[in-house]
Amino acid sequence: MDIDKIEYFFASAELCNFTKAAQKCQITQAAMSKYINSLESELNCRLFYRNNKGCELTKQGAYFYDEMQRIAYLYEQVKIGIHERTEPLIRAGIEGEHHAIPEFQMFQTVNPEVVFDIHFADRETLLQALELERLDVLLLIRNQPDVNELGNPFKVIDLPGEKECLIFSNNALQKYGTVEEVIKNLPMITKSDDRKYHDYCREGLKRKFGVEPEEIKVIDSVTNQQLVISLSKGFAIVPGFEITEESVFHSVQMDEVFMTGLQMVYNKKNVTVETRKLITYIKEAFAK
């Protein structure tokens, strides 16, 4: 299996259509079909159900997708890690949907020479990367499950909770009339492709508003996300600290339903000078 071509499989799984996946990967449909057939033959199992509308993952295909996402992420980290660092750098992994991290931003105001290399992924992938010393610190959502139970070599610092907000355009509210109708009629926009996070959002919205979105769209660019929302083509859930008086979006605070408590986790076997500075700063400024 060619790890560099695994994006062909990811695109097919995410778009549920081999033709669209081939277009995204800039290859012919014949080449895409040949790759998928070869992959299924190599694994000796069926990864997709085919139908007139496109394709969808089998149970084995869904398992392969989740596991290969982790492997592909670690592979990219290995490629980065083999190059010597040329500047003070903290490699940080973040679970969830945070676009900006106030703890890191405030640290940089007093340590402007330190650069953060941010990576978003699911919890298991991040913890594995931390253990393999491919990341220096993690910000994880508290109690999902409790990181304090992990033990060696991880150390945990609890951070304050942060309420999240639902945002959408004022035009969307005028068009649909209520928050509930906005949620029912527009897709939720997120940069996370973690299905567990999608389920978490659906359940939280249903608990608070009694409805859930019919569709969740993954858009990995914050700029493109904001454009989609401003055009009344979707809504998003963001940390409360991102909402300012200058914000052009209508926002609804999610109260206790979406309260994000964070934990900073580091590997005590791999503490760089920059990471030690961050740990000291976090303990003094934020830790409970």
TrEMBL record:
Q: Name one GO molecular function term.
A: DNA-binding transcription factor activity
Q: Which family does it belong to?
A: Belongs to the LysR transcriptional regulatory family.
Could you list this entry's UniProt keywords, alphabetically sorted: DNA-binding, Transcription, Transcription regulation
Protein name per UniProt: LysR family transcriptional regulator
Domain HTH lysR-type, by residue range, is 1-58
| Source taxon at top rank | Bacteria
Signal sequence extent: none
The record, for Gene3D superfamilies, names: Winged helix-like DNA-binding domain superfamily/Winged helix DNA-binding domain
The species is Baileyella intestinalis
Q: Does the keyword Transcription regulation apply?
A: yes
Q: Which Pfam families match?
A: HTH_1, LysR_substrate
